[in-house]
């Protein structure tokens, strides 16, 4: 049974009609007192709850009711309803334990999808049997460490739902592979999986890239363009480096995630889209929210489920397996004989700090195979390549940062890294602990000309 709590009879009637047509049993309550009587008497499968029940718009009554419901029925998912202008109320509700929120007027398809997701997740067992996680299509995810298996257990539990997922972890931990695993194990597996590197899209091009444009919408719009959201319709959109998105673009993104509609530039007609959203970042979004550089309402919209990837140094037992995988792939791609590793070589690889995580290990293994030309690699082969290429960037001897601005220090550090790694942008990005896209943005910002 789904319980609808709203003082507006028209809202109760509209929602009841929609949910009954979708096959749900529905009960309604006009206010907190009636709602609590029902909640005490029986446990609803889900509650749709308005935030305001009087002329006041503070939302205090809604928050109080939510807290009371959570005392009596802590496992019942609650979806809050509020006006777009009062979205901060919904954020407070999420902090108090609500499952999700929608804004009025709502989009029926989007609301039904969120209700279905809430019911699926609340019914799903918290602990997935190990054999179920092993049954996942893991694609190229290599490893059997406890940290990785916990991640795959979560993927097994949530893949078939439409829940939005936020994948966190350091640069190079394999966030994109986890996003792909979520997609290929979902009910959308035969539909598009569209990857978007938000760190590589400038503010001026954001709307055109994400929502598309009509010919003539702006000066350089010489033809119609289909946006990324439309390309991902019925499938999954992967928003990588979402922490790099500036505040003005965050608002535009929130709009389409909120009601799954968007407007193509040059066309005022709203278009509907059905997408599952998976995001990723190596930034601390909670800290960014507290610093007001990332919108709290967007934060709650994208992380219904959070998957945190362990750093490679936290899953060292997987390093030999990963090294073997990268070596075999390198042999297949370049038509080389199979490379073997001595015990000392594997011990050496397993002891490294890996500030660049799996990406760093992959680069080291592939580079050593190509440079050495040997069929059996020992520790000295890896050591020579690691020392030459993977040492952290150090300030030039005698360099002083006194009196320099933060931008000047960053520019100087990039220049030193470029010199140290002879302009190899992959190695520079790895040494600086940032993605190539983030490095490109900084090169453009500081007008540093390079050839990759």
Gap between N and C termini, in Å? 60 Å
Task: Name the poorly predicted regions.
Answer: none
The strands making up the biggest β-sheet line up spatially as 2-1-3-4-5
Portion of residues in beta strands equals 5-15%
Characterise this structure.
By secondary structure, the protein is α/β, with parallel strands linked by helices. It has four domains: 2-122, 3-Layer(aba) Sandwich (Rossmann fold), CATH 3.40.50.2300; 142-310, P-loop containing nucleotide triphosphate hydrolases (Rossmann fold, 3-Layer(aba) Sandwich); 313-385, Helicase, Ruva Protein, domain 3 (Orthogonal Bundle); 406-446, Arc Repressor Mutant, subunit A (Orthogonal Bundle), CATH 1.10.10. Helices cover 46% and strands 14% of the residues. Helix 16 packs across helix 17 (379-389). The radius of gyration is 25 Å and the shape is globular. The N and C termini lie far apart (60 Å). The mean pLDDT is 86. Keywords: ATP-binding, Nucleotide-binding, Phosphoprotein, Transcription, Transcription regulation. This is Sigma-54-dependent Fis family transcriptional regulator.
